[in-house]
Design a protein that fits this description.
This protein is an alpha/beta fold. It has a single domain, classed as Dehydroquinase, class II (Rossmann fold), CATH 3.40.50. It is built from 5 helices and 5 strands; from the N terminus they run E-H-H-E-H-E-H-E-E-H. The longest helix has 21 residues. 33% of the residues are buried. The structure holds 1,3,4-trihydroxy-5-OXO-cyclohexanecarboxylic acid (DQA). The site of 1,3,4-trihydroxy-5-OXO-cyclohexanecarboxylic acid has 10 residues, from loops.
């Protein structure tokens, strides 16, 4: 059997991390985020496949792929969080756990960011800890996968 794998999925405009609104999202890049998650996951024997897209349908495709290819998904759906029933339905369609992460504290921002179409079909949500939230999401996800594996054996 191959190594256990997590998908790290980032939505629109997160390719511009580090350059985009640094007061809100910080100065670190998406590559820095990927490294952070890879390191956290490696401590537990997990590998990470990272994907970023500005296109909703591509994100749907990758959520669906996780059913066959990953143990779970860490996703920052970015603006699609607040609008996308397609992403929500994709998460509902798979059996693998999904953790939603936001770099900023969406709850102290505009009211349209307070709504998540996805949160109620995710296993958990990490909000407002900057890019360190991705590491926290990875740890929470791995803990969940490992504890469920034990319960089933
Ligand atoms: C974000 C918050 C969203 O409201 C926003 O559209 C983003 C980034 C975050 O990580 O804080 O693009 O998901």
């Amino acid at each position: 059997m191959g190594k256990k794998r997590l998908f790290l999925i980032n939505g629109p405009n997160l390719n511009m991390l580090g350059k985009r609104e640094p007061d809100t999202y910080g100065k670190k890049s998406l590559d820095d985020v990927v490294t952070l998650v890879e390191q956290a996951a490696a401590d537990f024997g997990y590998e990470v496949t990272s994907f970023q897209s500005n296109h909703e349908g591509d994100l749907v495709d990758w959520i669906q792929r996780a059913e066959e290819e990953a143990e779970g998904i860490i996703i920052n759906p970015a603006a699609y969080t607040h609008t996308s029933i397609a992403l929500r339905d994709a998460i509902s369609a798979i059996s693998k756990p999904v953790v939603e992460i936001h770099i900023s504290n969406v709850h102290e921002r505009e009211s349209f960011r307070h709504i998540s179409m996805l949160a109620s079909v995710c296993s958990g949500q990490v909000v407002g800890f900057g890019i360190d939230g991705y590491r926290l999401a990875a740890l929470g996800m791995i803990q969940k996968i490992e504890s469920e594996g034990r319960n089933h054996s």
